[in-house]
Amino acid sequence: MKGHFLMRQEQRDRIDVLKSVRKKVMRLKEAAVVLGISYRQCRRIYRRYLDEGECGLIHRLVGRPSNRAINPGPREAILERYRQRYPDFGPTLAAEKLNLDGYKRIDHETLRQWLVKERLWQKRRKRSGHRTWRQRRAHFGELVQMDGSIHRWFEGRAGGDYCLMNMVDDATGVTMSLFDKEETTACAMMLLWEWIECYGIPAALYTDGRNVYVPSEKSNLRAQERGTVVWTQFGRACQKLGIRIITAKSPQAKGRVERSNGTYQDRLVKELRLAGISDINSANKLLHGGFIDQLNQKFSVEPTERADFHRTALGYDLESIFCIEQERAITRDWIVRFENNYYQLKRQSKYRPASGKILIRKYLNSELHFNYRGQDMNYQQLPQRPVPVQRQSGTKKKKKYTPALDHPWRCSWKKRKRA
Question: Is the pLDDT of residue 303 over 90?
Fold first, then answer.
């Protein structure tokens, strides 16, 4: 309303002090101490108070537009672009996309205020966590968290839910991910293989209690009764590489990878929608084509210590380590059954196998390797189940011997004694 003005409490407190100075009750030097400002500033304020009255205490910029304010024209264009292309994007991600689209550089907080004012975005209540914050590990590669996120990544364009396997370093937040249909052993092996090729062999993995990573309780009980150790296929590969697997008791324990999954579910889903991707292969190309690098550049931090706990993979045959190993029985004819198929192995000799067991390795590219007593053997798949061959003896069958009537065998022992 015209003739009215608003003052802060700090400015209203100055009125009483300056009135005391005007009545000669207080000097300017004492007023500066009370107001907590310099003597020169107090003198300026007092002169303005004498010239303009109480209105002179109001800051000169009150009611004037900011020098950094965006004109209404570009503001409406930015909001219209948001409504058309990024209607469900958060302010931070939307600001990044708008800057890439060529619009004037805008801060995410400014965009958030615009969206809240236009009712395009709602304020979110921050929840206070009840768990204590665990400090990051000090070294890169000391602990890497691993988890699978089942989500509608393609928003129904490819039907159903898919799995994103994700690995996050605890010390730096560096991430690496891979798409697959489900959280399988093969997908976990491929992701760990890529991590090793990029950074090296980590010291430990932090996973949940799924059967992909650790055996079930029943398997552990049976192994304890037999006095043996049972491994999953993934656990066996980690054991050969010297990687320790730590099992988390709750999702909050591995919160770093869980929060990383939330970042992927927010940003990656929108990137897949903008690129029109609806299949796993194209999604993996998008991940490794720069999306993961952008996330690492934006969210990763420097470790506390400079030492890297990753070990080199030189000397390891990763192809034979990241595979499915199973033991099968071998017949006398050097035939092995695996996955409901029969395979004829090349004989090492004309005799039957000395050992009745053979180790079969199925590589991630579906290649089969039959390892017999430490040596890979050539094989040939049989079209059908082999029929056992009946062996014919070279000697003639003996006739049954029938003794004569007067043969001693036909007499009782008393008759033979008399005779």
Answer: yes
Cross-strand pairs, 169: 144
Which is nearest to 165 in space by CA: 152, 153, 150?
A: 150
Distance CA 358, CA 351 (A): 16
Spatial distance between the Cα atoms of 124 and 91, rounded to a whole number of angstroms: 12
Give the E-state strand segments of 134-293 in sequence order: 144-151, 162-169, 175-180, 204-207, 244-247
Q: Residue with structure tokens 């420097």? A: 302
CB half-sphere exposure, 123, CA atoms < 13 A: 5
Q: Which two tokens stand for residue 351?
A: 């005799």
Strand order in the sheet with 368-372: 323-329, 357-363, 368-372, 375-377
* Predicted local confidence at residue 110, as pLDDT: 87
Can you give the residue ranges of every domain in the chain? 9-57, 72-117, 144-299, 322-381
Could you tell me the pTM of the whole model? 0.72
Q: Inform me whether the pLDDT recorded for 257 exceeds 90.
A: yes
> Which two three-digit tokens encode residue 124?
């979110």
- Which CA distances in Å does 266 have to 76, 191, 289, 300? 25, 21, 19, 17
Query: E strands, 153-287, where?
Result: 162-169, 175-180, 204-207, 244-247
Average confidence (pLDDT) over 65-86: 82
Distance CA 373, CA 357 (A): 9
How far is the C-alpha of 343 from the C-alpha of 334, rounded, in Å?
9
Alpha-carbon Rg for the chain, nearest whole angstrom, is 40
Would you put residue 368 in left (φ > 0), alpha (ψ -120 to 50) or beta? Answer: beta
SS3 assignment, position 128: coil
Is 383 exposed, middle or buried, given 0-12, 13-18 or 19+ CB atoms closer than 10 A?
A: exposed
Q: What percent of the chain lies above the pLDDT cut of 90?
A: 40
For 178, left (φ over 0), alpha (ψ -120 to 50), or beta?
A: beta
Q: Give which of 165, 174, 167 is closest to 295, Cα–Cα.
A: 174
Only one residue has tokens 């993996």, namely 284
Q: Which fold has domain 144-299?
A: Nucleotidyltransferase; domain 5 (3.30.420)
How far, in Å, CA of 311 to CA of 317, rounded? Answer: 15
Q: What share of the chain is helix, strand, coil (3-state, %, to 5)?
A: 40, 15, 45
Q: What's CA 191's distance to the chain center, in Å?
A: 9
